[in-house]
Predict the structure.
Amino acid sequence: MKHNVDTNLVLIDLDVLLDTRVGCIMQHNLELGSQLVNNPAYYDRNDDHFERIVPGIDLAQYQEWYKNRSTETLKFSKPTNAVFNLTSLIGGMLVDLHSPSTLTREAGIIVNLHPYNLTLDEKHMIHQALVSYFGVEIRIRFIERFKSQISFAWLDHNHIHTYVLYDLYEWTQFQLGHINNINDYPKFPHINIIAPQLATDIKILEKLYEEYPELTEDDNLFDIVCQDRAPFFRLSLIHPEQMSYVKLKKEA
């Protein structure tokens, strides 16, 4: 019996493919950015309090830079490990596309460019770079959409069953922040949300720990968060290094 799968679409934020966190710091202070990427703690962090990794970084200043990141920031932002690790996901999409047991009519990657206002030439450069990594069989296209507009219902309506993003907390505040009881969350168990296993702000971690007062030192907070969301949507939290700057060698 054939299993009908109409589409296999993945939505990825550009902030996942490029390390715009480092890019923001490099844009304004190359020395601090270099210190950050050469510190192993950056790749094994639980939050984005970079001042605890490089004391010269001012947290409030960084947060302002990141809030106002622009196409200029992208010039200082290098690819993350996500670019390379997505190849296994792409391989699975190709299998579905050619398998006689499926009826997949479209397999593709949608890159959300928001908040960057790119020219056609800049979009073409990014498109060509992604094609060089992922091949020509997977369709790659761009959208520019606010996080507040990327709802579960919108993902479902557009046949997007995987959404890869960096700031999970920001997005869930838009989509679920108005719901007080987790049991009232909308149910989209076929949608997979992929994000780094970190909190952009330590205050988010503190709130999560308050939500689970019974946690012991042996418990993994992030694993429990994923388990609790499982009836409503799939949540996959990956190691922060997978969405961090690719450091091939020590950089001056």
The beta strands are 7-13, 106-112, 139-143, 160-164, 192-196, 234-238. The longest strand covers residues 7-13. The chain has a mean pLDDT of 87. The CA atoms of residues 24 and 227 lie 33 Å apart.
